[in-house]
């Protein structure tokens, strides 16, 4: 069984760059630490030695990479993160919050880059040994909102530099995935604290904390 020895809780934030994933994950970190729960926040791609090297390659605007190369490097980083970090933490009973998970590959490389979504899914399910989150929160924003928030802070990375049509397909992909996987979709333009409150309400209502 994929989750037979897992006691912890696995929470994922998904959505476009700039939608507020890291902001919400950090607020949850404070929330859990106030309650004495063991909490781990990881982000994708990265979080392991190999993953951080792959992240540099993947996000460097000078990297030239085929589409399937991109799918496979992301899956490699994810496989390492799950094996070395996420799964051991869940087995110990920790709350693990992940900024992006395999749904990002389905939305960006599958729908956005128009690669075979089923194949992207199979590769990634294999890479993570079938481990799926307990909750996935999708922070929904239009591409221009996310790009404006990101551009204010730093330059755009290789994937963020793609055209508007790409991001529109990613948004539509996320909407399909939300139905398929039962994501909890939140309005990413709502005030930060309001979104946090809603996330906490949902987690508390399901009696996890
Ligand atoms: N709900 C929100 N409303 C307005 N600004 C936000 C909101 N959530 C996040 N931000 C801001 O947008 C920027 C990107 O947020 P971040 O959490 O880093 O996004 P992500 O991790 O999804 O790329 C940050 O400057 C953050 O303060
Ligand atoms: Mg982030």
Percent of residues in helices comes to: 55-70%
Total domain modules:
1
How many β-strands, per DSSP? Answer: 5
How would you sum up the major sheet? 5 strands, parallel
Overall morphology: globular
State the fourth-level CATH superfamily.
P-loop containing nucleotide triphosphate hydrolases
- Give the N-terminus to C-terminus distance in angstroms: 24 Å
* Small-molecule binders: adenosine-5'-diphosphate, magnesium ion
Question: Structural class, please?
Answer: alpha/beta
List the helices and strands and how they pair.
Layout lengths: L8 E6 L6 H14 L4 E5 L5 H11 L7 H25 L3 E5 L2 H11 L4 H11 L7 E6 L2 H11 L10 H18 L2 E4 L4 H14 L4
Parallel strand pairs: 1-3, 1-4, 2-3, 4-5
Helix pairs in contact: 1-8, 2-3, 3-5, 4-5, 4-7
The structure holds adenosine-5'-diphosphate and magnesium ion (MG).
Detailed description of the structure:
This protein is of the alpha/beta class and 209 residues long. The protein has one domain (9-205): 3-Layer(aba) Sandwich (Rossmann fold), CATH 3.40.50. It is 55% helix and 12% strand. It has eight helices and five strands; from the N terminus they run βαβααβααβααβα. A five-stranded parallel β-sheet has the order 2-3-1-4-5, sandwiched between helices. The longest helix is centred in the middle third of the chain and has 25 residues, at 67-91. The protein is globular and about 45 Å long. The two termini are 24 Å apart. The mean pLDDT is 93. The structure holds adenosine-5'-diphosphate and magnesium ion. Adenosine-5'-diphosphate is lined by residues 15, 17-23, 99, 149, 153, 188, 190, 192, 195.
């Amino acid at each position: 069984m994929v989750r037979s020895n897992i006691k912890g809780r696995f929470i994922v934030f998904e959505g476009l760059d700039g939608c507020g994933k890291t902001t919400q994950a950090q607020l949850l970190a404070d929330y859990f630490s106030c309650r004495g729960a063991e909490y781990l926040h990881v982000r994708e791609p990265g979080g392991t030695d190999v993953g951080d090297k792959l992240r540099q390659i993947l996000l460097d605007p000078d990297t030239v990479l085929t589409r399937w190369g991109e799918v496979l490097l992301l899956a490699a980083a994810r496989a390492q993160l799950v094996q070395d970090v996420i799964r051991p933490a869940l087995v110990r009973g920790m709350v693990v919050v992940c900024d992006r998970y395999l749904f990002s590959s389905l939305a960006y490389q599958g729908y956005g880059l128009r690669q075979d979504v089923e194949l992207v899914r199979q590769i990634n399910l294999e890479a993570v040994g079938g481990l799926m989150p307990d909750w996935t929160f999708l922070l929904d924003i239009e591409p221009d909102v996310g790009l404006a928030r990101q551009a204010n802070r730093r330059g755009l990375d290789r994937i963020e530099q793609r055209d508007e049509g790409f991001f529109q397909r990613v948004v539509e992909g996320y909407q399909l995935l939300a139905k398929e996987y039962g994501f909890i979709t939140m309005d990413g333009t709502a005030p930060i604290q309001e979104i946090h409150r809603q996330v906490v309400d949902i987690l508390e209502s399901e009696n996890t904390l």
